[in-house]
Design goal:
This protein has helices at about 45-50, 60-65, 70-75, 80, 95-100, 125-135, 155-175, 195-205, 220-230, 250-255, 270-275, 305-310, 315-320, 325-350, 355-365, and strands spanning about 5-10, 15-20, 25-30, 30-35, 55-60, 90, 100-105, 110-115, 120-125, 140, 180-185, 210-215, 240-245, 265, 275-280, 285. By secondary structure, the protein is α/β, with parallel strands linked by helices. It has two domains: about 5-265, Alpha-Beta Barrel (TIM Barrel); about 275-365, no CATH class. Helix 9 (about 220-230) links the parallel strand 12 and strand 13. It starts with a strand and ends in an 8-residue tail after the last helix.
Length: about 375
């Protein structure tokens, strides 16, 4: 039996669920920290779990190039290789092929490209993507797709979507079914309702354990993303998890949960942490700014992470300005903790059927701005 999804409650469109997998249970809505190359940057796996994260994301493109999926398989699979026993979702590699690889050639069969690392030549097809993700022992495998760029013409969006649907069918056929594992299809169609509907119908006919919304957060802006989510999430099977890929900032997450999304991933909390930006309940804070250099207060007094419990803004400012590794670690840790706390707060609000009030309070506080300098 493949992985299963239990819908435990609903408040408006916001959903409270539970995803049951071979590597553990995931409470939804959930946020997946990104471990692109087999590590969540600047974090130990046990510390990632300590924030409340139950699932992380790995990247097919990066891992197939280095250290290679075959080597990871020989060493026991990605869970053992990176010391993360919990669920792992791997993206299919399509987005990175389009954005990072050199000398790409796209055909009906797949994509041939040269590695951005050493220029070596590779081909990914739907079948090869399924093979790589199986070698990695991904709990959740993503169908191979072409990430439609934005902006593009409707004809381009249609052709890209139709190709991705043919690849989705081939991905389903090539996927190795195992107890507690699953394959997610990816809805495409850019910002066009009729294309999104065609994509959803094609994916539903094929049948997947979950459904992702692709082709958003690629430059269209939050307003248009939300406008698209207003209709495209409803097109997906209600009894399966809905995953919005590559999103996003805290207010993106809250807005998407309000529209029926269950799962998220994004590099922002880790990438921003490494550059000195923190996400707090009162919005984003740039700890590099001079206003923090004499501030003995915590980054976020409501946060229980080590950066907030044990260190001052002044110390974090010093670490980041001095380019000390500890600063990158603490800021990353804080951001991951904030994201997991936010997801837990949303789960609790949906359970209590108070999500509407939570939504209003979140935006009021998040937009209020950082605390005044001393």
């Amino acid at each position: 039996m493949s992985l299963t999804f239990d819908l435990l409650g609903q408040d408006g469109k916001a959903r409270r669920g539970r995803l049951n997998t071979a590597h553990g249970t995931i409470q939804t809505p959930c946020f997946m920290p990104v471990g692109t190359a087999g590590t969540v940057k600047a974090m130990l796996p046990e510390n990632v779990a300590g924030t409340g994260a139950e699932i992380i994301l790995g990247n097919t493109y990066h891992l197939m190039l280095r250290p290679t999926a075959e080597r990871v398989a020989r060493l026991g699979g990605l869970h053992e290789f990176m010391n993360w026993p919990g669920p792992i979702l791997t993206d299919s590699g399509g987005f990175q092929v389009m954005s990072l690889a050199e000398l790409r050639k796209l055909t009906e069969e797949g994509v041939t490209f040269r590695s951005h690392i050493d220029g070596s030549r590779h081909t990914i097809t739907p079948e090869r993507s399924m093979e790589i993700q199986t070698l990695l022992d991904a709990t959740i495998t993503m169908a191979f797709d072409e990430c439609t760029p934005y902006p593009c013409s409707k004809d381009q969006a249609a052709a890209s979507m139709e190709l991705s649907m043919r690849w989705a069918d081939r991905s389903r056929s090539a996927f190795q079914q195992r107890t507690g594992y699953g394959l997610f299809g990816i809805q495409q169609g850019s910002v066009h309702p009729d294309l999104r509907q065609q994509s959803a119908e094609a994916l539903t006919q094929i049948g997947f354990e979950g459904y992702a919304i692709g082709g958003l957060a690629v430059g269209e802006g939050q307003e248009l993303m939300f406008k698209t989510l207003d209709y495209c999430v409803d097109m997906l099977p209600a009894d399966k998890p809905h995953y919005l890929m590559g999103v996003g900032k805290p207010d993106d997450l809250v807005g998407a949960v309000a529209r029926g999304v269950d799962m998220f991933d994004c590099v922002l909390p880790t990438r921003c942490g490494r550059t000195g930006q923190a996400f707090t309940r009162r919005g984003a804070v740039n700890i590099k700014n001079a206003r923090h250099k004499d501030d003995p207060r915590p980054l976020d007094e409501a946060c229980g992470c080590p950066a907030c419990r044990q260190y001052s803004r002044a110390y974090l400012h010093h670490l980041i300005r001095a380019d000390e590794i500890l600063g990158l670690m603490l800021m990353t840790w804080h951001n991951l903790q904030y994201y997991q706390d936010l997801m837990a707060d949303m789960r609790a609000a949906i359970e209590a059927e108070t999500f509407g009030a939570f939504y209003q309070t979140f935006h009021q506080v998040y937009r209020s701005g950082d605390i005044e300098p001393l």
